[in-house]
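Help needed: design a sequence for this.
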């Protein structure tokens, strides 16, 4: 593996570094405290081409490799995890199944505008009694003339209050197997439920969602009956890798803030970064961050090369999310009382980073996946 970035990768990285420094970081606190979807910056990233980076040219994309996408995601997450969560969800789970499985009409009306940042997509998998256990999904899709009737409840639907369409996982057919449907916001029988208040990523709204005899035409059944899980598994590794990249960005923001503060804060006549206790924390944070970045990039590189990568994707997400959480915790300790103060961004980093511990699979589930891979 060549650890040197190509000229194209470096140019893209620099583009998103500038965007973070000029547009995201100065507005990160306002994004957080507004508790509302950051639509303006969302659309600016659409105009910058972020949503279409991984898609082919025939839908306006750049067909960029996954390593390069991770470079961009790290920069966005360094500025604001809330915004990064919004745009990463849109670029991957919010639009991927439309491109993979949608017909020409769906691509023209929904996918292309979404890749430009003009429409917002959401995904509905989690239910009150189904999270990591996909086999427990209870939302049903019953065949009727011309389509299906969906009934059930979804939880933790990101961007639900603002989304224009939803990719929905429901059980269909005599064997009640997982199937993917596309539900547009104006479909009768779709109800956006209560908002779920969260400790972090405040700008990424999350709600319950209910289907009450919601009619979905045959044209909006994206997968064949029973093939939903197979299509999801094709995407899971990529979801985990980009979640790892989010964690790297969040951890990097915390390390940079702790390093800056330690150079400025003086105690007993000298900056606290002159004391070994602080130096050790900063060294541990930097080492964990670099290790996490390398694991994420290696898993992405394997995916780009078409090599086996599911174990490495799980490892990258596991290590990066746990390392990110530890880095943010240590940053708060470096700032001491100010790490607890709302006027400093470290409290936001600490709240937001936990988002990466959940998305793409919990650490416990990932450990089981890795152990299974080792024994196979």
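Sure. Designed sequence:
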């Amino acid at each position: 593996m060549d650890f040197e970035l190509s000229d194209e990768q470096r140019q893209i990285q620099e583009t998103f570094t500038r965007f973070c420094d000029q547009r995201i970081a100065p507005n990160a606190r306002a994004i957080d405290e507004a508790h509302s979807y950051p639509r303006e910056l969302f659309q600016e990233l659409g105009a910058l081409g972020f949503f279409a980076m991984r898609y082919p040219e025939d839908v306006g994309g750049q067909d960029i490799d996954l390593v390069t996408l991770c470079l961009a995601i790290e920069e966005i997450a360094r500025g604001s995890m809330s915004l990064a969560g919004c745009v990463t969800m849109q670029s991957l789970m919010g639009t991927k199944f439309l491109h993979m499985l949608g017909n020409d009409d769906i691509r023209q009306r929904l996918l292309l505008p979404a890749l430009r940042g003009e429409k917002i997509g959401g995904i509905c998998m989690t239910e009150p009694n189904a999270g990591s256990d996909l086999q427990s999904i209870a939302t049903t899709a019953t065949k009727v003339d011309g389509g299906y009737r969906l009934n059930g409840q979804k939880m933790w639907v990101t961007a639900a209050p603002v989304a224009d369409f939803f990719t929905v996982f429901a059980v269909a057919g005599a064997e009640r197997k997982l199937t993917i449907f596309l539900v547009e916001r104006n479909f009768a029988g779709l109800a956006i439920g209560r908002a779920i208040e969260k400790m972090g990523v405040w700008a990424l709204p999350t709600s319950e969602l209910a289907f009450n005899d919601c009619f979905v035409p045959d044209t909006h059944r994206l997968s064949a009956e029973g093939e939903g899980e197979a299509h999801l598994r094709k995407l899971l590794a990529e979801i985990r890798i980009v979640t790892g990249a989010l964690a790297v960005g969040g951890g990097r923001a915390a390390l940079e803030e702790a390093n800056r503060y330690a150079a400025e804060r003086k105690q007993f006549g000298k900056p606290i970064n002159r004391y070994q206790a602080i130096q050790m924390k900063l060294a541990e944070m930097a080492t964990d961050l670099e290790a996490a970045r390398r694991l994420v990039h290696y898993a992405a590189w394997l995916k780009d090369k078409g090599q086996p990568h599911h174990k490495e994707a799980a490892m990258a997400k596991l290590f990066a999310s746990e390392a990110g959480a530890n880095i943010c915790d240590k940053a708060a300790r470096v700032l001491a009382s100010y790490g607890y103060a709302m006027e400093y961004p470290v409290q936001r980093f600490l709240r937001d980073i936990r988002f990466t511990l959940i998305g793409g699979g919990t650490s416990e589930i990932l450990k089981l996946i890795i152990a299974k891979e080792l024994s196979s």
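Residues 228-264 form the longest helix (37 residues).
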